[in-house]
Amino acid sequence: RRWLDRPRSRPYRARNAGDRRTMTDDALDQMAILAGALPFLKRYDDQIVVVKYGGHAMGEEETALRFGRDIALLEQVGVNPVVVHGGGPQINAMLKRLNVKSTFVQGLRVTDEEMLDVVEMVLAGPVNKQVAEAITRAGALAVGISGKDGGLVRARKLTRTLRDPGSNIEQVLDLGYVGEPESINPKVLELLIGADIVPVVAPVGVGADGQTYNINADTVAGAIAGALGAERLLMLTDVRGVLGPDGNLVPEMTVGEVKAGIAAGWISGGMIPKVETCIYAVERGVKGAVILDGRVKHAVLIELFTDGGAGTLIRP
After folding, report:
1. Alpha carbons 173 and 150: distance in angstroms, whole number
2. How many CB atoms neighbour CB 1 within 10 A?
């Protein structure tokens, strides 16, 4: 949409007969790809797509640059991407340098006051700016912010319980300054999107009393997607998607089928919080949420612009 409106960099000049080149198989393949993508370009024109980006791929320069190019391409063809990033490996590296030990409970990092300073410094500092810079370098304009900026993510303390296997008594776990989104104020994101700027969000929020909280990036991405009424939520992870009882990828599921898979036990472990985030977003108006392998080249583009997609689509 936008690139059609841009002025040509030089006047158009018709080719002479002598300028004609032989149409190669590669060129024909490229034209076929473009023709196949056209219906999807129309579908996502001016629509919001929230992308959760994280994991070890963030530390690999070429993968990070390729991700930046893919997000820039989305913006340039008329999609409105919003990126929410994690940064666990980078936090671990900094804690190791500072000789600070981490403790995890049910997959969540226990965050005391000292660790909170490190988490916020890493997530809202170098990681956030590196992701935004990779997108900007690729030709789109990206701005890095945290959930504290503009009151974007209002958070509350996250509570978890654990049942003692011996006494069967349920105990409340204190995770420190680990939070969850209480509400999302999308105004700052809408202002950036309206100015053709790609928001890049670090998953840090603030409570009503001004307390900073470390929040799981998946949870923040789902909450933001729901608040924006996004067309798609893309959860980039290190697995292909949801695997069925036979070990094969399940390309598409309804919310009811996901809940049945959890009850039956073939959706388990670390996949459960990811599908629960997808369900949360879909039940709040997101048209579809996808879990896909972010290590696959151009996974975001394959998911949005091809019939087969690249992961597991969860829909109402």
Report:
1. 31
2. 12
Cα–Cα dist 8/2, whole Å: 13
pLDDT at 11 over 50: no
pLDDT digits (tens, 9 = 90+) for 234-284: 999 888 899 999 889 999 999 999 999 999 999 988 888 899 999 999 998
Q: What is the rounded radius of gyration, in angstroms, for the C-alpha atoms of the chain?
A: 21
pLDDT, tens digit, 9 for 90 and up, residues 43-89: 778 899 999 998 666 667 788 888 999 999 999 989 999 999 998 88
| Distance (Å, whole) CA 24 – CA 30 | 10
Q: Mean pLDDT across the stretch 30-36?
A: 59
pLDDT of 173 over the 80 cut: no
Beta strands in the chain (DSSP E): 48-53, 80-85, 104-105, 108-109, 141-146, 153-157, 160-163, 170-173, 178-184, 197-202, 204-206, 212-215, 232-237, 252-254, 288-293, 311-315
Residue 193 CA neighbour count, 13 Å, CB half: 20
User: Is the CB of residue 224 less than 8 Å from the CB of residue 285?
Assistant: no
Please give the Cα distance from 60 to 183 (Å, whole number): 33
Retrieve residue 93's tokens. Answer: 């590296």
Name the pairing type of β-strands 204-206 and 212-215: antiparallel
